[in-house]
Structure formats: structure tokens, C-alpha cells
Specification:
- It is a single chain.
- By secondary structure, the protein is α/β, with parallel strands linked by helices.
- It folds into two domains: 4-147, Rossmann fold; 156-211, Winged helix-like DNA-binding domain superfamily/Winged helix DNA-binding domain (Arc Repressor Mutant, subunit A, Orthogonal Bundle).
- The protein is built from eleven helices and six strands.
- The chain has helices spanning 13-24, 38-47, 64-74, 89-97, 109-121, 129-134, 140-147, 156-166, 171-178, 182-196, 201-211; strands at 4-9, 29-35, 52-55, 79-84, 102-105, 126-127.
- Strands 2-1-3-4-5-6 form a six-stranded parallel β-sheet, sandwiched between helices.
- The protein is globular.
- It starts with a strand and ends in a 14-residue tail after the last helix.
């Protein structure tokens, strides 16, 4: 029987390795790749063909939410399990609205990870028991319905650039990371501000954090104005 292939994405190497050990103790499960940030994850998915991605929301260089949106666009057959420290309704509902198959709290990992993988592998949706206890009214279908009308007006590339701005990267750094010209970055920044009707950089950063495209604290980027 072919193994169930999994990719891990988390910027903490020790935690990522601990998750890998848990996964590979189970016959039939195999970790086929690791990534430390969103960009590495998307590049890795071009080289591997996993059935499941397990990722953290709080990653540098393209945050988890932005990465999920890109995965669902480019690799719709790949299932996604969020493994996060965030317990808020906002983080959970944004993730579920993007059609992830599971949301597990990091503090639940040791006890619940394999169960979550098996539920998702069988076609179900898994929600962390700790999260369900703290927010008992949460229902995945309700989050999907409630947020269905809140489609982001930004393109995938614009979301990608916005997530970098929220991390404090300059226009030149963004251009280098994405292999595009600085003029292209500036054009995207102009379009982002126009679509959102926001003019100040700090407002863009707050928007990115609110949407879950970045978990960074608000900082004024040095190269975007």
C-alpha cells in the first residue's frame, strides 16, 4: 500500500521534528518534506505531491493564511491541517472559511495529531477538542456560511505582497524574494491601497493582521509608503 504523504510547515525546527517523529511512528504515514516558511512550502509543493499539508499560521515569509489560499488555488486536491497556537474565533473561522480540513491547537498535538490525520484522511473535518471546549458554539459549517460573502478583493499576488509588508520588508526585499522588479512591487502596493481604500502603511499592516495574512505585530515598513 502506498504511504499517505505529508508535508510539514513550521518555522520552529524542533517542533517540526517532534511532529515528524509522531507522524512516522504510524505505519502508512510518511513525511515527504519540511518547510520553515510559506515561500518554502509553496516551492516544496511544486516538487512533491502530498495528500496533506500540516502548517502553522504564524510563519515568516508569507504567512499561513496566505499560504493556505495559494494552496487551495494551485493544489485544490491537497488537504490542509492547521496546527496553531491561536485559539480565537477569528483565526479559526478564517481558516475554516478557506476550506481547510482541520484545525488543531499545538498544545493538543501529542494527544490528537494522529487522530486528526486519520479523520482528514477519511474525508472528515477535525477540530481541536480544546478549541471546541473553549468556544462550544463553533461549527465549521457556520463559519463557512458566515464568511462566504467576505471574499477578499485582493489578488493572490497582492495578498502575498501585503503579507510581506506586514512583516516589515522593504519594497526591494519583496522584489528580490519574488523575483520581480521594484516597479512591479510599487504598482501592486498602489493597487492594494486603491482596492482597500487605505492610504497609510500602518492601516495596510493592520488589515493584513486582521485577515490573518500575518501574525506579526504592527510595524511601519521601511520601504512602502
Amino acid at each position: 500500500m502506498y504511504p499517505y504523504k505529508i508535508v510539514l510547515a513550521d518555522d520552529h525546527t524542533i517542533f517540526r521534528q517532534a511532529v515528524m517523529r509522531l507522524v512516522e511512528q504510524v505505519p502508512g504515514l510518511k513525511v515527504v518534506g519540511e518547510a520553515a516558511n510559506g515561500l518554502e512550502l509553496l516551492q516544496l509543493l511544486q516538487q512533491t505531491s502530498p495528500q496533506l499539508v500540516i502548517l502553522d499560521l504564524s510563519m515568516p515569509d508569507y504567512g499561513g493564511m496566505a499560504a493556505v489560499k495559494e494552496i487551495k488555488r494551485i493544489h485544490p486536491q491537497v488537504k490542509v491541517l492547521i496546527l496553531s497556537m491561536h485559539k480565537t474565533r477569528g483565526h479559526f473561522c478564517r481558516a475554516i472559511s478557506m476550506r481547510v480540513q482541520g484545525y488543531l491547537l499545538k498544545e493538543d498535538t501529542h494527544e490528537e495529531l494522529i487522530a486528526a490525520i486519520e479523520v482528514i484522511r477519511s474525508g472528515g473535518t477535525y477540530i481541536s477538542p480544546l478549541l471546541a471546549e473553549q468556544i462550544p458554539e463553533i461549527k465549521a459549517k457556520n463559519c463557512r456560511r458566515a464568511l462566504a460573502f467576505q471574499e477578499d478583493p485582493l489578488s493572490d499576488r497582492e495578498i502575498q505582497i501585503l503579507s510581506f509588508l506586514a512583516e516589515g520588508k522593504t519594497n526591494q526585499q519583496i522584489a528580490d524574494l519574488l523575483s520581480i522588479s521594484i516597479r512591479t512591487v510599487q504598482s501592486h502596493c498602489y493597487n492594494i491601497k486603491s482596492k482597500l481604500d487605505l492610504r497609510k502603511s500602518i492601516e495596510l499592516i493592520k488589515y493584513a493582521i486582521l485577515k490573518g495574512y500575518s501574525s506579526m505585530d504592527p510595524v511601519e515598513p521601511r520601504g512602502a509608503s
